Amino acid sequence: MQPFRYLFPLLCAGICLTALSGCQPGADNQPSSATTEPAPPTSEIEANDGATEQAEVSGSTIVNPDEQVLLGLQADYGKAMEKMDDEMQLMLSINNVDVAFARVMLGHHRGAVDLTKLQQRYGSDDSLRELATTILSTEQDEIDALRKWMASHPDTRSPDPSTIQIRESYHYAIAAMNERIRTAINASTPDLIFAQTMLAHHRGAEAIANIQLKYGNNAEMRQLAAQIIEEQKSEIAALEAWLLDQGIDAKPRLVPLTPTAEPTENGLVADTASNDKVPAENTSTATETPTLAAKPVE
Question: Which of 8, 17, 83, 173 is the right S-S partner for 207, CB 3.0 to 4.6 Å?
Answer without folding.
Answer: 173
